[in-house]
Structure formats: structure tokens, C-alpha cells
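Throughout our pipeline, every protein is held as a single compact record rather than as scattered files. The record that follows is passed on verbatim for readers who wish to inspect the format:
___
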Amino acid sequence: MGGKSLVAASDAQRVALTALAASRDRGEADRARAVLLTLAGWTSPRIAEAFGVREDTVRLWRSDFGRGGVDALKASVAPGPAPVKSATALRVVTPLLEAPVADRPNWTIPRLRAEIEAHQFGAGAGAGRNHSGASGGGMFSTHATD
């Protein structure tokens, strides 16, 4: 099936799409850019090639926009409990990786794992253990040593 897309957007939606296209979340930025390119006359195959996705994916993004507007293109949090380890990892890793490269120590997976677990579990009996209580393992499963 070929032809021109029926996607349309108001001026306010175009402004919101442009803002979302600058998002730090690549997925939602790509979805917004794909809709903006659709509005500029690009075809599904052309957009799919530009983003490295399938044509069906582009059509899904357009459909999401058509049903729910810009909000439907935004990233959403999966249902379930909060990702405790991910939040802890980000809290520990972000300052470490934001330091100037010249001042940054080399980080191996075991060193990083130990740092994350120390921040998550504290220095008590649970340090260095995963939630099942097994020794080692922790957040990253690797047998390498420091």
C-alpha cells in the first residue's frame, strides 16, 4: 500500500513534536522526528531506512500519534516495582562518568559492581550479596576479578 500519509498536526502539536524531538530519550525523540518527517511528506520506507527500523514500526508510531497525540509518543514507565538496582547504579555511575577523563580512574565491572553494591546495601552484612543472599554475583554476573 502506497500513498500519502493521512497524519495531520495542529501548530501546537508541531511545537510539542519539535520539543519532543530534542528529548534525551532516543526512543521518544525518534518517534517525534518520524511524525515530523511524515508531516514533511516523507514516506514510511524512507523514514524506516533513516531510523533503522521497519516500515511497520513507522506506521505504528504514526498510529500512536493519531490516537493519542504527542503524549502517546512519550516514553512510559513499565508497570511493576521500582527498579532499585538501576536507580542505584545510575546514582553511583553518573558522577563517576561525568568527571573529566584525565581524572577518572579505570573502572572494571567488578570494581563498579562493588561500588554500586556498597551504595545500595551499605557496609553491613548484606554488602557484596545479591537479594537471594548468595555471595558474590550481585548486580552483574561476571567471574572476572579486579
Summary: Confidence is low (pLDDT under 50) at residues 122-146. The chain has two domains: 11-73, 78-146. Helices lie at 11-21, 26-39, 44-51, 55-68, 84-98, 109-121.
